[in-house]
Specification:
- A hairpin with a 2-residue loop joins strand 3 and strand 4.
- This protein folds into 2 domains: 6-253, NAD(P)-binding Rossmann-like Domain (Rossmann fold); 285-500, N-(1-d-carboxylethyl)-l-norvaline Dehydrogenase, domain 2.
- The chain has helices at 6-11, 33-37, 39-50, 66-74, 111-116, 151-166, 185-199, 204-213, 233-240, 264-267, 284-307, 313-316, 320-334, 342-356, 365-368, 372-379, 381-391, 396-408, 434-442, 448-457, 459-462, 472-486, 488-500, and strands at 24-29, 55-59, 79-87, 90-98, 101-105, 125-128, 175-178, 215-222, 248-251, 255-259, 277-280, 411-415, 418-423, 426-430.
- It starts with 5 loop residues before the first helix and ends with a helix.
- The strands form 3 sheets. Strands 5-2-1-6-7-8-10-11 form an 8-stranded mixed sheet.
- It is of the alpha/beta class.
- 47% of the residues lie in helices and 16% in strands.
Length: 501
């Protein structure tokens, strides 16, 4: 079977959109599955539907991982993206050959080629997703490194090369779209770049240019990307009639919020192409919506659902009691605490339900359970406090979710990489910071009241003493007693019955 190329696509009579030649207007740090299924997909669509006419130069941000780069270059930048999901109760699938990528570079072995991209007058956009650890300031990075180790240091070197080529010429700075999963990713990236410029004693004119001619956009990204489909790849390639070594898969749903000036809409014509990309002056309400509804629903549901016998998210949605717990948590206890218009929140919540039911993704509850303490603090606690402030009473299901958390974290013995808990006679692994696991192991034999008081009062966990929330410790204790005596599913049933009263 021939490998994917433009010639191969002609031979198999591929009828989809292709862009073989265009200026390289986008530099992308990150060759992984996510950006190829997310930003490159969006760029490919605006090439087709809005005449964007842009190729993407992909840069691998770390020294290793040449295999993906080699495959991308062997396939002339082409790869197949398969998006699959559930919409309004039915399976949907979309297959598209992505043709916006021109080449992939390794700056460690191709430093001069990589830096030469800064001389390209057409280059206008920089996209990055270098993981949560990518946007960090490492003072050990030097300007003379080829390249510098950290991503912000690499970017500073690249920006300086651009400044040397074009000086303060208007329109030759970059629109920089940070996609890392940290708060204010664009602003944090800009801070690091300015730190390096000052550390390296680069000219003040360059520092001024960074701030006046470049726009560092904070963004929110939302799409589950499942990557290379190892179990299905052979059959997929057989159906496609070509070999694709960088196949990528993800869910149908996607949403990208870019914080930037109004004029950015003219340079990035996502709206013209009908794409789910929002350019706004403030991305934070949308981040809050995602964290509180999507992630909050996960975190509040999965530990109880796991203890009740479930293993993956999709199966939880087939159990009417668990599904109702999740939906009523969202609609009755989370949405009332948020600031966006109710219709936007409800529409997003409906999409969340479809995503949880995706028949193509086996999202394991135990994988979601990783680091649940920090997740509960960030994703669920704000809804609990917002609900109490607004209604003057405790939310039934969110309060129950805190009891599920405590029950899940009951470890019977320590292991090298976590605590071992029991679901009936079946062992499972509890993974979190070691100090947190040590706390729960130390309290494993305490009575319910002592455990609840100690855990809720631990401000290292929550940033505050939760026993000060009126009635919370008592209600969590009652819920935890139900779990211990009758099981997690019984508490889920009781939440349904209490809500009906």
């Amino acid at each position: 079977m021939k490998k994917l190329s433009y010639q191969t696509l002609k031979e198999v009579n591929y009828g989809g959109y292709l862009l073989e030649q265009a200026p390289e207007r986008v530099l992308q740090f990150g060759e992984g599955n996510f950006l190829r299924a997310f930003t490159d997909y969006f760029i490919d669509v605006i090439n087709e539907k809005a005449g964007f006419q842009s190729k993407v130069v992909v840069v691998q941000p770390i020294a290793g991982g040449d295999k993906i780069r080699e495959f991308i270059n062997q396939q002339e930048g082409l790869y197949t993206l398969i998006l699959r999901g559930n919409e309004n109760g039915r399976k949907v699938s979309e297959t598209r050959v992505i043709s916006c990528v021109s080449r992939c570079l390794n700056p460690y072995s191709q430093y001069d080629t990589y830096m030469a991209c800064a001389d390209n007058p057409d280059l206008r956009f920089i996209v990055c997703n270098t993981t949560e650890a990518g946007i960090q300031y490492d003072p050990g990075c030097q300007f003379s490194d080829r390249p510098a180790g950290s991503y912000p240091a690499k970017l500073t070197q690249f920006l300086y090369a651009r400044f040397q080529k074009f000086g303060a010429q208007k329109g030759k700075g970059f629109i920089i779209l940070a996609c890392e999963l940290i708060d204010d990713n664009g602003k944090e990236l800009e801070k690091c770049v300015l730190q390096y410029a000052r550390q390296w004693q680069l000219p003040s004119e360059f520092i001024d240019w960074i701030q006046t001619e470049n726009v560092f956009c904070s963004t929110l990204v939302d799409r589950i990307v499942t990557g290379y489909p190892h179990k299905e790849a052979d059959q997929i390639c057989e159906n496609l009639r070509y070999q694709d070594n960088v196949l990528d898969t993800g869910e149908i749903f996607a949403f990208w919020v870019i914080e930037g000036p109004e004029w950015l809409k003219r340079e990035l014509p996502f709206a013209e192409a009908g794409l789910p990309v929002l350019i706004t002056a403030d991305h934070k309400p949308y981040k809050q919506r995602k964290v509180r509804i999507l992630n909050g629903a996960h975190t509040s549901m999965v530990l109880g659902a796991y203890l009740a016998g479930q293993n993956i998210v999709r199966d939880c949605m087939q159990d009417p009691v668990i599904r109702e717990f999740m939906e009523r948590t969202i609609y009755d206890e989370i949405i009332p605490t948020l600031s966006l218009p109710e219709k936007e929140l409800v529409d997003f919540a409906k999409a969340v339900t479809d995503r949880f039911e995706n028949p193509f993704i086996d999202h394991a509850l135990l994988s979601i359970s990783l680091n649940s303490t920090a997740k509960w603090k960030a994703r669920v606690l704000p809804s609990l406090k917002g609900y109490v402030d607004k209604f003057g009473r405790l939310p039934i299901r969110i309060t129950a979710s805190l009891a599920f958390y405590l029950a899940f974290y009951h470890g019977v013995r320590q292991a090298e990489n976590g605590l071992i808990g029991l679901r009936g006679t079946e062992e499972y692994l509890i993974q979190d910071d070691r100090s947190i696991l040590d706390f729960y192991y130390h309290h494993k034999d305490r009575d319910v009241l002592t455990l609840v008081q100690a855990a809720l009062a631990n401000s290292d966990f929550w940033g505050e003493d939760l026993t000060k929330i009126k009635g919370l410790a008592e209600e969590v204790g009652r819920n935890l007693q139900v779990i211990k005596e009758q099981g997690a599913y019984q508490l889920l049933l009781q939440c349904r019955d209490r809500a009906a009263d």
